[in-house]
Amino acid sequence: MENLAPLYVNHINEQNRRVADVLAREQLEGLAIHSGQYHRQFLDDINYPFKANPHFKAWLPVLDNPNCWILTNGRDKPVLVFYRPVDFWHKVSDVPESFWTEHFEIKLLTKAEKVADLLPKNLDAWAYIGEHLDVADVLGFKNRNPDGVMNYFHWHRSFKTDYELACMREANRIAVIGHNAAREAFYKGASEFEIQQQYLSAIGQGENDVPYGNIIALNQNAAILHYTALEHGAPANRHSFLIDAGASFNGYAADITRTYAFEKNVFDELIKAMDKMQRELVDMMRPGVRFTELHLATHHKLAQLLLEFGIAKGDASDLVEQGVTSAFFPHGLGHMLGLQVHDVAGFAHDERGTHLAAPERHPFLRCTRILAPRHVLTIEPGFYIIDSLLAELKADGRAEAVNWDMVDTLRPFGGIRIEDNVIVHQERNENMTRDLGLN
Ligand code: GLY
Ligand code: MN
Ligand code: MN
Predict the structure, then answer these.
(1) How far, in Å, CA of 142 to CA of 137, rounded?
(2) Domain at 162-435: CATH architecture
(3) For residue 90, how far is its CA from the centre of ligand 2 (angstroms)?
(4) C-beta of residue 286 within 8 angstroms of C-beta of residue 424
(5) Which of 12, 197, 299, 311 could form a disulfide with 325 if both were Cys (CB 3.0 to 4.6 A apart)?
(6) Where are the beta strands (DSSP E) in 328-367?
């Protein structure tokens, strides 16, 4: 991959610039950004897997260390308070030595509660940024996650720096290795559980390292949108495979979905048609286009496809208007992607956080943004046979619009989703996923 060190210089400069800008506006002196703390399981001495505050990992790829802090005023070299306890029970993180370390003044902290010694004495004009408001309270922060600061960062985080784009290409590269391994396992007859193991082993990441719980669904399970169970036994008959699986790199996520048919049949034809539609939607992304428009265009394209395949009857626009396409495609076309899989600020209209609502009839759309260069989004149209949603069509007089024999034919296959990760540039779109050869 690209050498990250020179890219990181601009990234850290941009972080510092943003801090200076927002502090001046909000009349604050500095920010104390907390990596987080362990969460303990109820009545137990075992912790849940640690997930760093995204505002913290926006600065540096320290992902596994609680009780760390970044102290920044946007002008001076930021301080990294790095937690390094004396502990013979757990692995203690080594003092970091990496491409980013020279850009921080690193101070070691051996006891979490001693951080007060390293914070400014007067915190009146400092803001705490993090999850643990009780900790902020004890330390004496009056400003905690102020809206003006949060909205500002969330908005600007959507414009990825070159360093971040390089990290996201790398996350995609890793995920594509897993997708290739998973496809092979599917055609060889593996169970969902076995496919998951082969995916994780191919990418060298554990279940707690990947950015979200992989969806590995055979046959009808592909119709369950957030299917994360994993059947251990292989099904008697193999029809279809939907895999929605990502990878992480330096705290940035990939989020990729593919669907496969086991045999050449109408479902395989439908996948090809959905794939063509998905590519057309990617081509429609450009600066200035509102994501909502792309989502609505998806419904019109899907209506055409339902007619072509004899799944629905009537007029394409009517199918959209009557909510027939929504029964087959109930989720949003995509979302912002970055430090979080469903990255923040999908509804933001400006850096003050003005909310751009999704249309009332599309409550699950996660992004209404006006696209701009350096935005990274997923494009993930879907088509599913979800009986509970189709039952609503039957119940209220829209049954006529559906060819139920085709629904019965397609039910054993569950559904289709095709999801790529795309960077919007001024002159073109960069489909990171396809560029890596995943078709
Ligand atoms: N993997 C979750 C999503 O596609 O949004
Ligand atoms: Mn996904
Ligand atoms: Mn997604």
Answers:
(1) 7
(2) Alpha-Beta Complex (3.90)
(3) 33
(4) yes
(5) 299
(6) none
> Which residue's alpha carbon is nearest to atom 4 within ligand 1?
255
Angle at 150 between CA 373 and CA 63, to 5 degrees: 80
The model's pLDDT over 208-231, given as tens digits with 9 standing for 90+, comes to: 999 999 999 999 999 999 999 999
* Core vs surface per residue 54-67: b (16+ CB within 10 A) or e: bbbbbbbbbeebbb
Phi, psi values for residue 81, rounded to 5°: -90, 110
**Runs of H (alpha helix) within 349-399:** 387-395
DSSP H/E element including 165: helix 162-187
Domain ranges of the chain: 4-157, 162-435
For ligand 1, say whether the CB of 380 is within 6 Å of any of its atoms.
Answer: yes
Name the CATH superfamily for 4-157. Answer: Creatinase/prolidase N-terminal domain (3.40.350.10)
Q: Which amino acid is at 403?
A: N
* Dihedral pair phi/psi, residue 349, rounded to 5°: -105, -15
List beta partners, residue 76: none
What is the CA(222)–ligand 3 centre distance, in A? 15
Looking at all shown ligands, the one closest to residue 257's CA atom is: 2
C-alpha distances out from residue 78 to 71, 140, 153, Å? 6, 21, 17
The three-state (H, E, C) secondary structure of 319-331, written as one string? HHHCCHHHHHCCC
Ligand 2 mean position, distance from CA 402 (Å): 28
Pick the atom of ligand 1 nearest to 335's CA. Answer: 5
Rounded Cα gap, residues 41 and 60, in angstroms? 28
What is the value of pTM for the model shown?
0.97
Closest atom of ligand 1 to 212 CA is 1
Q: Could you give the dihedral angle defined by the CA atoms of residues 206, 212, 213 and 215, in that order, rounded to the nearest 10 degrees? A: -120
Contact 182, 198 (CB under 8 A): yes
Asked if residues 93 and 64 have their Cβ atoms less than 8 Å apart, the reply is yes
Count other Cβ atoms within 10 Å, centred on residue 181. Answer: 18
Contact present, 23 and 177 (Cβ < 8 Å): no
Ligand 1 in reach of 255 Cβ (< 6 A): yes
Rounded to the nearest angstrom, the distance between the alpha carbon of 341 and the centre of ligand 1 is: 7
Q: How far is the CA of 244 from the centre of ligand 1 (A)?
A: 7
Residue 343 near ligand 1, beta carbon < 6 Å? no
